[in-house]
Every structure is written in C-alpha cells, then in structure tokens.
Amino acid sequence: MTDSTKNYWIDLALWPGLLLLCIAITAFGIAHGERAAGFATAYALLVVALWRLERVLPHQQDWLRDDGQMWPDLLHTAVSKAAVFLLVIVGGAQGWFDALRPGHGWWPGHWPLPLQVALALAIAEFGFYWAHRVSHEWAPMWPYHAIHHSVRRLWFFNTGRFHLVDTARSLLFSLPLLLAADTPQPVLDWVSAITAFVGLLTHCNVRMRTGLLDLLFTTPHMHRWHHAPNAEEGNTNYGENLLLWDRVFGTWYRPANRQPPRVIGIADRVPDDYVGQVLAPFHWRAIQAEARLRPARSAQD
After folding, report:
1. Torsion over CA of 84, 241, 198 and 222, rounded to 10 degrees?
2. What is the pLDDT of residue 250?
3. How far apart, in whole angstroms, are the C-alpha atoms of residue 15 and residue 35?
4. Torsional sign, CA 222, 223, 228, 231
5. Which residues does residue 58 pair with via DSSP β-bridges, in sequence order?
6. What distance in Å separates the CA atoms of residue 59 and residue 56, rounded to the nearest whole number?
7. Residue 242 DSSP one-character state
8. pLDDT (tens digit, 9 = 90+) per residue, 171-202?
9. For 234, how many CA atoms within 13 A lie in the half-sphere containing its CB?
10. pLDDT digits (tens, 9 = 90+) for 253-290
11. Whole-angstrom Cα distance, residue 63 to residue 206?
12. Which DSSP symbol is given to 260?
C-alpha cells in the first residue's frame, strides 16, 4: 500500500471512527453505571486526540498559528457551560423542564435505544436549525452569534466560543421540543453527548475526507463553508449534528468543484478581549460605526 493510499484511508476513517469510539466509551460507562464518567472520559480523549491530530494532520497549516484568542475562547466556553449547569442543577430549572413533560406523550419508548436517539436528534435538530438560522438572518440576534464567527481559524479549542445569550438561544429552541415529546432522560443524555462530540469534530483543524457523510451530517468540510466570510456561502449548513433540515429548507451547501475558503471570519468589528466581546452586542451599532470611521480618519492623517 502506497503512502498516498494509506493517507486516503486514514482521512476517510477519522471522522466516523472518532465519533463511534466516543459513543462506544460512553456506552461502556453507562452499562457499568458510570454515565458521567463514561462521557467525561470519551470527551477528554477526543480533546487530546484532536489536539495531537491537528499538529500531525492539519487541514490548514496556517490555522495552527496563535490568533491571540485562546483566553477569550476558553472563558466563553467555561462561562456558557457553567451557566447551563447553574441554571439546571442549582437554579432548579430541571423542575421547569419536568413541568413541560406531558407524562403521557407519544414517545415510542418501545423502540430500540439507537432508534430513539436518532429520532431525538432529528427533533432537536429542528430547534437547533431554526435557532441557528435566526441568529444569522434576524439582525437583532446576529451581534451575539457574531462572536463565534469572528474567529480567523477553526480548531477544536474554539468549539465553545459562544456568547451566553447565544447559548441560551440554542437551548431554548431545542430542549422544549424534546421535553414536549416526553423524551426519556437517557435519550436526552445521548443527544447531549453526541452534540458535544460532533461539536469538537466539526470545528477541528484535522485533514479528513467525509464524502457521502456530508449529505446528512455536519462534518468539518460542511461547517467550514458555514464560516465563509460572505453571506451567500456562510448562511448555509445550519445543522448542529445533522443537515436534515438544511436539506428540507434548502440551505444545504456543498459546491461540487470547490473547497471551503481558506480565509474565514466576518467583516464586522469584534473586540479582541473577552469582556469586550461579552458587552459588544449591547452597543453593536456604535462599535461598527467607529470601525467605519477609523479608516477615514487614518486617510485624513
């Protein structure tokens, strides 16, 4: 087997192989009564694997360079995750969520668990899809989501770079749909775990071939188009895990003869520091006006 052939098969196996390995480790933990430990182990191993793979098999070499955003990326991730934890566990939101369960819903609990998880992912994706699309196409929500799109490189570390309002938007669009269907907690746990794994894989800077998987799944290839700097290409591929609803509503995008852009990001001005990014959506127009005036002032000087 030649090196090129070997590399082809490695690239082809990476995305499904890593996802299935994470699912297997999580399932092993659940089978032994250690649901949280199983998920945490799988997630940590995926982080380490992607960190190493990005240096050995990078999709783009220039995306390995430091962009000065590691601290904001880390703080956005930590604050969003902590807020969700405090809301659900400490703040008692679980009680509100339980109140949304009809208790006699139509959920097909007699189905095999994998089919229940697939159904739950499709339902959750409807909420994820519209939450994501609204944040792009409805002007009042864009400033919050722009924090995520302001990155100039994609890698596993900025997977969780979301404004807190943006995180809440995604949760509020998707979770009530599952609760209203009376989705069992084990199935909800699987949706949460798979979403976390796919999120890391989607943003990673690893060379992968996903081929036919692009037709339905949110792969790195498809998500790189979503981070294109122009709206015609960037306002596509909204799915979190699946591109099911993109295909239904006509926003699935994969040009046949082109690769995703090497240069990503947005034209809008976003502060470089974490606090500035958190506050930016609340005085967005002023920031953009100042950014437009700056080149004019420079030209006058």
Report:
1. -130
2. 97
3. 23
4. positive
5. 206
6. 10
7. B
8. 889 888 888 888 888 999 999 999 999 999 99
9. 20
10. 999 989 999 999 999 999 999 999 999 999 999 999 99
11. 10
12. P
Both structure tokens of 111: 């189905």
SS3 track for the chain = CCHHHHHHHHHHHHHHHHHHHHHHHHHHHHHCCCHHHHHHHHHHHHHHHHHHHHHHCECCHHHHCCCCCHHHHHHHHHHHHHHHHHHHHHCCHHHHHHHHCCCCCCCCCCCCHHHHHHHHHHHHHHHHHHHHHHHHHCCCCHHHHHHHHCCCCCCHHHCCCCCHHHHHHHHHHHHHHHHHCCCCHHHHHHHHHHHHHHHHHHHCCECCCCHHHHHCECCHHHHHHHCCCCHHHHCCCCCCCECHHHHHHCCCCCCCCCCCCCCCCCCCCCCCCHHHHHHHHHHHHHHHHHHHHHHHHHHHC
For the CA atoms of 42, 44, 48, 54, the dihedral, rounded to the nearest 10 degrees, stands at 80
Is there a contact between 240 and 132 (Cβ–Cβ < 8 Å)? yes
**Confidence (pTM):** 0.92
Residues in the chain: 301
Are the beta carbons of 39 and 26 closer than 8 angstroms? yes
Give the number of other Cβ atoms within 10 Å of residue 257's Cβ.
Answer: 4
Q: Which residue has the tokens 């899809």?
A: 129
Q: How far apart are CA 134 and CA 104, in angstroms?
A: 31
**What single letter denotes the amino acid at residue 150?**
S
Nearest to 252 by CA among 122, 123, 141, 133: 133
- In the chain, the amino acid numbered 227 is H
Tell me how far apart the alpha carbons of residues 5 and 8 are, in angstroms, rounded to a whole number: 5
| Residue appearing with tokens 């090129």 | 4
Indicate the domain borders of the chain. 3-300
Please report where in the chains the tokens 């570390």 appear, as a residue. Answer: 157
Handedness of CA 126, 131, 135, 137 (dihedral sign): positive
List phi, psi (to 5°) of 58: -70, 140
User: DSSP secondary-structure letter at 152?
Assistant: S
